[in-house]
Design brief:
The protein has 413 residues and is α+β, with helices and mostly antiparallel strands. Helix content is 68%, strand content 8%. Helix 9 crosses helix 10.
Length: 413
């Protein structure tokens, strides 16, 4: 089964990512596709919100920096406003369209690199403190891409390496820095990149592990629901005959009774009793008696008219049929159909040479009753009336159908 194999894959991946060592944050193809499909909407929405907040803060700080420090040139303001902001907005707007993973992750990585290189370009050849601002800017950008935006590990790695390479070029070509300062600056950037990549990896692994645990819980819940449904179905069936049992009958009877009250429609019941069942057991044995009950149950379900009719084993050799929306004429017709089917085909083959056993022929007697339920009437009234009719059918010689006196069960409407 597909669900079973997927469950096994999920269990293997949970075990793999739970190990205390580095693991590639990639699932097998089928599971990876499902992970992307299930998480892409939420991830795109989160990136849109966080990216928009970052863009607003970036421009607010840029304007504040220019107003508070007059030495900041308009060149920096215009360059960041004309390049960084439009590129960032374009990438951010793309998140609204729930893009593919490659576009989503690559575009954010690209925008981060543009921000980093623009910052390095503006700080180049500035004041003596400019290299410090440059290093801080690179570290903040790497931190933003890997930890805040949480680029997937592969994209975060190459974006960080590209930004670090740009910082290496900046530091090595900066004439204001002495060799010791260059080594310290590059070491600081490398340490920052390493730390942020470790954080990015941990976040990515926890995200994937959390997804796997939720997915396994959902699959286990679905399997449990199916098992419960099957158990419920089995608990509602009679173990011998395979049709509904007494418990299922009581629940269905309650439902059909209330429905008949709401719709002001009739509800009929047919009680069926296997004739001379004790004698049949005594002559042919209980195993043969079980075969007879199974045969009668099969014929009973074949006689039903539609899915709304309900048949159940009432107890022992008795069966019951509920007929919603059916009046006396229709219920009598169905009862007679049941009686005739059993008379013709109700006796299984007797696997014995006993002439007494072969002389016992399976027939049934049926009692029919109909009511138009109201709030003041009771369900027992219907069953008692059908039982009275069944008693009359047996008194008439069995293998017959009788209907109770309608005056006992309500007025026809």
């Amino acid at each position: 089964m597909v669900s079973t194999s997927l469950h096994d894959v999920v269990a293997q991946q949970i075990e793999r990512l739970s190990l205390k060592k580095f693991q590639w944050l990639v699932f097998p193809a089928q599971l990876e596709q499902r992970f992307e499909r299930d998480t892409c909407g939420y991830r795109s929405a989160r990136l849109w919100i966080e990216g928009l907040v970052a863009i607003v803060l970036f421009n607010v700080l840029l304007l504040a920096n220019h107003l508070l420090i007059p030495s900041v040139s308009w060149r920096a303001v215009l360059l960041r406003s004309a390049i960084v902001t439009p590129v960032s907005l374009l990438v951010n707007i793309g998140m609204l369209f729930n893009p593919s993973r490659v576009y989503r992750e690559s575009s954010i990585a690209f925008a981060s690199c543009v921000i980093c290189f623009t910052h390095l370009y503006l700080e180049r050849g500035g004041s003596a403190i400019a290299p410090t601002f440059a290093q801080v800017g690179v570290i903040v950008t790497v931190l933003f891409a890997t930890v805040v935006m949480r680029l997937q590990f592969f994209y975060a790695l190459w974006a960080s390496l590209v930004m670090m390479a740009g910082d290496v070029v900046y530091v090595l070509t900066d004439s204001l820095l002495v060799p010791e300062e260059k080594v310290f600056g590059l070491s600081l950037t490398m340490c920052a990149v390493a730390i942020t990549m470790m954080a990015n990896y941990s976040l990515g692994r926890e995200e994937r592990l959390g997804y796997l645990l939720r997915l396994r819980g959902e699959m286990d819940g679905a399997v449990l629901a199916l098992d419960n449904e099957e158990l419920q179905r089995i608990s509602n069936l009679d173990a011998l005959t395979g049709i509904a049992n007494r418990h299922a009958f009581e629940r269905e009877f309650h439902h059909l009774w209330n429905a008949a009250i709401e719709t002001q429609s009739p509800l009929s019941a047919v009680l069926i009793d296997v004739d001379h069942f004790k004698k049949l057991n005594d002559v042919s044995g209980h195993l043969y008696g079980d075969k007879v009950l199974k045969r009668v149950a099969t014929l009973l379900t074949q006689a039903l008219r539609s899915k709304d009719d309900f048949a159940a084993r009432f107890g022992g050799e008795e069966f019951v049929v509920l007929l919603p929306g059916t009046g006396p004429a229709g219920s009598l017709l169905l009862a007679e159909r049941i009686r005739k089917l059993v008379e013709v085909a109700g006796s299984p083959v007797v696997e014995t040479a006993n002439t007494d056993a072969m002389s016992v022929w399976t027939t049934v007697s049926c009692g029919v009753a109909t009511v138009w339920p109201t709030q003041s009437s009771s369900k027992e009234q219907l069953l008692n009336s059908a039982d009275q009719a069944l008693y009359q059918a047996k008194s008439n010689g069995r293998n017959s159908v009788c209907c109770c006196d309608m005056a006992l069960v309500g007025d026809e409407q």
